[in-house]
Write a structure and sequence with these properties.
Elements: H1 23-39, H2 46-60, H3 64-75, E1 79-83, E2 86-89, H4 90-107, H5 111-114, E3 124-129, H6 133-144, E4 148-153, H7 158-168, E5 172-175, H8 177-185, E6 192-194, E7 214-215, E8 217-218, E9 228-229, H9 234-249, E10 256-259, H10 266-277, E11 281-284, H11 290-300, E12 304-307, H12 309-318, E13 328-331, H13 338-348, E14 352-358, E15 362-366, H14 369-374, E16 381-382, E17 386-391, E18 404-410, E19 416-425, E20 431-436, E21 440-443, E22 446-449, H15 450-458, E23 463-473, E24 477-486, H16 498-506, E25 517-521, H17 529-542
Parallel strand pairs: 1-11, 3-4, 3-5, 4-7, 5-6, 10-11, 10-12, 12-13, 13-14, 24-25
Antiparallel strand pairs: 1-2, 8-9, 14-15, 15-16, 17-18, 18-19, 19-20, 21-22, 23-24
Helix pairs in contact: 1-2, 1-9, 3-4, 3-6, 4-6, 9-10, 12-13
């Protein structure tokens, strides 16, 4: 059985958490919904917007749960999500979400009082995510139940899941059948809910917690342990601009959006939310490539698709041809190399849209197809309310065309932020992102800390020192390669192989941080006697 609980009872409200709703929070939530209502044939009349839409946002926040509920009222039996198991309607998606919400209320006794997070008032739920509809329903349901929801990569391996659960300390984990065993193997002893078979809670009313749900997206952990970044209304605030772009691309009810990016990242989740927001059919295809991807494209004829640059490169290499229905290909999460952008434009036409941002800031810039055709690889101009500057090491702006560190100013956030990204601004004012400045390698859309890889390798008992560097790669953009020097006194026959070192790293870093190539070097032999005395003179002669 997926869950064993010794007590059933409702969550106790915490009156101290109610508080007021800020004007910015209301506008960030209502604005995108009103925009969609005006531009996509929203089946709510003006008086329904006032009596239905606005109260839902004020009561529950502008999260995925509100998006699904409103879209279910609007689109009902039309297709919401398509995965490898079939299609799910908006009504069914909302029903699944409410089953999860009622299940959380029933199986997590006193969730609000039991929360042991010193810095977070919300009880926390981790949702194991793969490219299926169940995690979307689980996230929406947990938000409606008042939880802080952390989407977690279900393909990261047992060691990665163990580290994540220990760091996030969830009160409950929601996983599909494939993830239930992994959760237990990771040592989690709390309640676990099956995404596909939530507990039937007869007599349990729809939850109305004293606090809004909160979505938290995990950072890459490049500056320490991964931490959750988000706010109660972050989902719609991030997805609103993307929804407008999808509407301009022609995504409407019964028109498909193909999401190739993973749902535990802000890029993929925002795309899925935006597709639901505009009433389209969201096709989940993370991990597809080659002939399998071509079949999905031909079968569903999407209007737009989202991907990372590595997936774009693979499509070109595999000879995948988007159908004529595709009007936008949205790239993000990593720099798009100019040569790859130009090749895609030559092969598929002017459909490339490239974006730049981060988990902490959301989307900062976005190009148009025309801008991408004129300057292949550009991330475009800043979005409204955002200013971008390229500076030198002292923080002084550099001239256009010169490379420097990218700094961002977000209206209302106060001061400029260092992004640790390196790029340059074209004469036309369009941003080009090239690399990182803080020993971070962006590989296939994932941020890899070279320092963390070196520290993990150096912990091996046979390793004396380790170094890691990023190297250019035609598929992933950049990959991590490492070299280790064996501990002094170790016999070569006892040296670990590169495969053994990769296994060592599997238990200590994320799967995408394991180097593609590891070189093992013997320790330097101590030099004594005449050779040692002669070495300084030889160096002096060489200099």
């Amino acid at each position: 059985m997926p869950i064993a609980v010794s007590h059933v009872g409702p969550m106790r409200p915490d009156r101290r958490s109610r508080g007021s709703v800020s004007r910015a929070s209301i506008l960030s939530g209502v604005g995108p919904l009103l925009m969609v209502a005006a531009r996509s044939g929203f089946l709510l009349r003006p008086w329904q917007v006032v009596t239905v839409l606005v109260p839902l946002v004020l009561r529950h926040g502008a999260g995925l749960d509100t998006v699904v509920q409103v879209s279910a009222r609007r689109s009902g039996g039309s297709t919401a999500v398509i995965d490898d198991l079939g299609s799910t309607s908006y009504d069914e998606l909302w029903r699944r979400a409410m089953l999860i919400a009622r299940g959380l209320v029933s199986v997590v006794p006193g969730a609000e009082a039991a929360s042991d997070h010193e810095k977070h008032a919300h009880p926390r739920a981790c949702v194991l995510v793969r490219s299926r509809v169940s995690p979307l329903a689980a996230i929406a349901g947990a938000l409606r139940a008042g939880f802080e929801v952390i989407p977690v990569d279900s393909f990261g391996g047992a060691s990665s899941l163990t580290r994540t659960l220990r760091a996030q300390k969830p009160l409950v984990v929601i996983a599909d059948a494939d993830g239930l065993r992994a959760v237990r193997e990771a040592g989690f002893s709390g309640p676990v809910i099956d995404q596909d078979r939530p507990p039937r809670c007869m007599g349990v009313r729809s939850p109305r917690p004293a606090r809004r749900g909160r979505l938290g997206l995990l950072t890459s952990g490049t500056t320490g342990a991964p931490r959750a970044i988000g706010s109660p209304d972050a989902t719609l605030a991030r997805a609103g601009g993307l929804a407008a772009l999808l509407l301009a691309s022609g995504v409407r009810s019964r028109r498909a959006l193909l999401v190739l990016t993973p749902l535990h990242h802000g890029h993929g989740l925002s795309a899925a939310v935006a597709g639901i927001l505009v009433g389209g059919a969201v096709v989940l295809g993370h991990g597809l490539r080659g002939a399998a991807l071509q079949r999905i494209l031909d079968r569903h004829s999407p209007v737009a698709l989202t991907l990372v640059p590595t997936q774009l490169v693979r499509m070109l290499a595999d000879g995948v041809v988007p159908p004529a229905s595709v009007r936008r290909i949205l790239s993000g999460s990593a720099p798009l190399a100019p040569q790859h952008a130009a090749a895609a434009i030559d092969a598929w036409g002017g459909v490339i849209v490239n974006a730049y941002g981060s988990t902490e800031t959301g989307t900062l810039t976005r190009s148009t197809p025309r801008q991408s055709s004129r300057e292949p690889g550009t991330a475009g101009r800043p979005l409204p309310g955002i200013s971008i500057a390229v500076t030198d090491a002292a923080g002084r702006p550099v001239s256009r065309g010169a490379t420097g560190e990218i700094r961002v100013v977000i209206a209302g956030a106060g001061g400029s932020r260092r992004t640790h990204d390196v790029g340059w601004m074209s004469p036309a004012g369009r941003l080009h992102v090239t690399s990182r400045s803080d020993r971070i390698v962006v590989s296939g859309g994932e941020n890899v800390s070279l320092s963390r890889v070196e520290e993990a390798l150096a912990e091996h008992p046979s390793v004396g020192s380790a170094s890691a560097e990023g190297e250019d790669d035609p598929e992933f953009g950049r990959v991590v390669c490492a070299a280790v020097t064996l501990r002094a006194g170790l016999e070569p026959s006892d040296a670990p192989s590169p495969d053994e070192l990769r296994s060592w790293l599997d238990a200590r870093v994320e799967r995408f941080e394991v180097p593609k190539r590891i070189v093992v070097r013997e320790p330097e032999r101590p030099v004594t006697g005449r050779r040692a005395a002669a070495r300084p003179s030889r160096r002096n002669r060489a200099s």
